[in-house]
Every structure is written in C-alpha cells, then in structure tokens.
C-alpha cells in the first residue's frame, strides 16, 4: 500500500476545479457529488469523458462488498461496488481535501452499519436551513441516520393538526419536515422520528392535567407530575397513541421510530405513585409494549432507551420487538449492556460518557472532544466503560453522536453546527476499517 506525496495532496486541495471520470454505472451520482463539493468545499467539479485527463477516476468493481478502494498514483482511483459506495468514496475524498490531509491508498470496509446523529429540537428550535446544513455535513462524514427528537418537557416542534395547542411558538411545519425528509434521502440519510413517552411529556400534558401521573409523598397531599403520563388511564394512553399515529403518517419513509421510555419515575420508590404501587413495573412495561406493538403494526421498528428495564437484576416483560438505544448506567440499579445482549436484543451505542454533547454542560456532562472520540472511544465501548465481548458484537447495530439542548441558550445554532461538524470528523474515524 502506498500513499501520495505531500505535493500531490496540496495539488488536489488547492485546485479550484476537480476533474472526475465516472464510469457509466455511476453517472447518476453526478448531481449530488457536484452539489456537495460546491456546498462544502467550494470546489467546482468537472465530469469528463476521457479518463487520461482526470484527476479522479471512479470505476465499478463488482467483487467489492459495501467497500470502496482508493488507490493513489498520478491520478486518484476510487473503485466501488455500487452507486452508494461510489458516493461514499467521493465524500471520503472530500473530507481529506477539506482537511488538507494526505490522501492514503486503502480498502475502506464499513464496520459501523448505522452512523447516527441525534438532535434535540424539542428543547431548542432549529430552522430548516440549519437542519439542511447538518445533513450536508453528515453526508460529508458518512453518517446515514438523523434522529429527530422533537418532543420534550419544554417544547414540541412539529406542526400538529390533531393537537395544535401543544405545538411550541417556534416549530417546523409538516411541509418543512417533508422537505427535510426528501433532502435527507437525496443524501442517503434516513430520518428516525423520536417522541418520548411516558416521561418527558410536560409540553404535551400542559393542557391535559387529567392525564398526568400523581404522586403521594409522606405527610403531603397527592400532586401531579407535570412530565409523566398516567399510564393506567385509558384516555391518557389513547392520547399518546393518537400522537404516534399522526407522526407515523408523516414519517412513512422511516424504518425506525424511537418511542422513548426513559426517566419516567423513580422506580426505587414506586410505592409513592398511587396508580403504580401495585405491579407498577409490569404496568409500565405493558404501556411500552402497547406503544411498541402499535408502532410495529405500521411497519416501524420501535426503539427505547435502556435505563428503565431489567433494573436490579430483575426479569423484564419488555417485548423483543424493540431495539435498545443504550445510553447510560449512571445508577448501579440500571442493567448492564450484557443483560440486553443475553436477552437477544439488538443495541445501538449512545455512550453518554463520550457521545453526549449537552448544551451548557448540564447534569454534570462535559463537552466531548475530537481526541476522546478518536482515541478513547470505540464502537463496542458502552457507557461506564462496558465492553461488548466479541461473541455479541453482531448485536451492536451502530452508534450515535447525541446533541441534547438542556440549556438551549448556551449555544447558537451556528455554534452547534460548527462544533458538531468537528465531532462528526472525530466520530467518523471509526466508520471504516482500512486494509
């Protein structure tokens, strides 16, 4: 394996126009490659018919499997087995040109199937134009999923025809969301919609206090919990399902739907909640299973957070239809990752020690760094330094860089995009094995 000399690297980086020869099988990629090179690198791409005049040649190699090969000599040769891997190869090259890095020869084999950015637009409004910018940076660094967390205690950010009174002052219209979905698809990125219930629902329950869970502390009156759904109230459950129903109709192209299930109540003091004092954990899991079944019946794979299940080493009735987004083990009562793996669940790595970008560094979090992402974290390292053993690594579907807007005023949209872009670069270090 050989790499290009520094002169060749700077030559490609400094050229205003990049000359590309694409084999006929990949000509459909011209438009989006041109668009992104102009948007992200401010470089004009010229597609030519004579390979001998090209700076970059992209050719078809059917024996490669979800892999692209870069060979560097007088010209840069990218070999790919499909239009998508040809696009990914050109984007990888764009990363190196943008960074002014030495472009190395190698076989780039995908090792992280799902490469996710999660964005909390519930707590902080992001405009459509800023979301498009995030998608463009994701395409550059090889991400393929954007999880849109649009419902939170302090905001609900997508237009609702069923419940217009629930929607925050700043929101995205359904027309804007459809445009976002189309642009994401154009960049080979899927959207994962995310409505968190039965906790994190303060915005949704503001106008419906009758559907709030109640708590009775010693020597105190019964009071409502503004953020928690009364999961034993049939009307309250029907309300939650009708919300999912409205947004499943909007996100018809999505494969996953995240249904939340985190930070609902203090499970270690479940006796304080009158409706849950008897069999509360089973009631909670029954609610989650009901939502999961509802979502699955419409063709989505439901996903849930990990923190409420298999606590204290107990068994769980959680349906096997869900996938687990494992984010934390900050309490000793929370089940280790191995419990979910042994039970046969597929998991996604949301390691909060390394992959959480929490605005204002709220709740004891510190901002992640490129160095930590590149050199201290790896895809099988889960929260609290839990390592997934070799025999379970096929159950790890991917990993996510998560932006949580706990203190929305701490950063502007522009600042978040600038910092997130740097973190994407560090995170993408783990996307391919280079042979």
From TrEMBL:
Classification lineage: Bacteria, Bacillati, Bacillota, Bacilli, Lactobacillales
Protein name listed in UniProt: Glycoside hydrolase family 20 catalytic domain-containing protein
Source organism superkingdom: Bacteria
Domain Glycoside hydrolase family 20 catalytic as annotated: residue spans: 115-408
GO biological process: carbohydrate metabolic process
Family: Belongs to the glycosyl hydrolase 20 family.
Gene3D superfamilies reported for this sequence: Glycosidases
Pfam families: Glyco_hydro_20 (PF00728)
The entry's keywords: Hydrolase
Active site, UniProt feature: 263
Molecular function in Gene Ontology: beta-N-acetylhexosaminidase activity
Entry keyword Hydrolase: yes
Keyword Lipid metabolism (UniProt): no
Gene source species: Enterococcus haemoperoxidus ATCC BAA-382
